[in-house]
Amino acid sequence: MSDQLWTDRAREYPLECDHCHYPIPGEPEAGEDGRYCSAACREAAADGSTMPDPDAYKRVVTGVEPLDSLVPNGIPADSLVLLSGDEGTRRAELETELVWRALERGEPAVVCSVANPPTAALERFYENGWNVLPALETDRLRIVDCFTRRLDDRDEFRAGRTEWATFLGEAAADAVVEVADPSDRREVANGIHRAIDDLEMSETGLVTIDSLDELESLAGGGLVHDFLKDVRSTVCTARFVPIVAAATTAGQAEHPEPERVFDGIVDLRLTDGNAAGTRLKRLAVRKLTGAAVLPQWVTYDHEPARGLFAFGPNTDARQVYDRGNGPVASTQRR
């Protein structure tokens, strides 16, 4: 068969390498037990190496409706993603839901809590009706605590907690990784590394960081920049574990690095709605390297248990909101 005929046939009927599972662009390398795209794959297979199907771990369909509607094929798993949002756009709820959907899929997750104590970070799940105690007990969830060591009197703080917060803190004690000095970017990175090592996270799960603004106030902008480059290379790129970090839009003009540091940027904005007195929440993906993204804004809101939901562009906001008192359950679905 001529080279041109082989090329034409390969394009029409692409073969998959039996080792790396990627398409074979030319004539395959024959081995004893399969067909391979290269001698490297053939030799690796002969040595007993097995590679997972890349579709199984290299993209993440988050389970969050408004986000998935814009990234239909999933977020690349080696991504560092920024949630850049106005106040009131439910950034915290979006991060919480991303973790919950991962736990629902049976995957592990790490929450790096900078702005709140671990019990407050966990309480966000319960506010949505999502019980994370089983995930804590089965080693699928870790909290990296960058808050508690900053308190002047930690004993007084613990003594003043409610009965529920005390119970939750005791139940989660083994799942908390405490960071001694959150102003040291290496300490924070090491806390995340310890947590993902505990959960043996590789090619599965995700990490969230609740507040880059708070981290920057502790460590400074330059150190946060170095921290992000560190965890991007050691967590996202090396392990195929995505990291989602949240920040407000305030002051971003002073920090031009987001476009360079982050693989993905999700913008969350408040806009004036059609109904009097209503501020609508809209979400768009500004950039996401390596993914197909729909270039549009999605209008969304949030409901406990359901999480974030989208409603269509032709929906009258008055059909979704009852005189500004929140979402109407009977009219939410598109």
From TrEMBL:
One of the entry's Gene Ontology molecular-function terms is: ATP binding
Which Pfam families does the entry link to? ATPase
The organism sits in which domain of life?
A: Archaea
Q: Does the keyword DNA damage apply?
A: no
Kindly state which keywords UniProt assigns to this record, in alphabetical order: ATP-binding, Nucleotide-binding
Q: List the InterPro entries hit by this protein, alphabetically.
A: KaiC-like_dom (IPR014774), P-loop_NTPase (IPR027417)
Protein name in UniProt: Recombinase RecA
Recall the taxonomic lineage recorded for the source organism. Answer: Archaea, Methanobacteriati, Methanobacteriota, Stenosarchaea group, Halobacteria
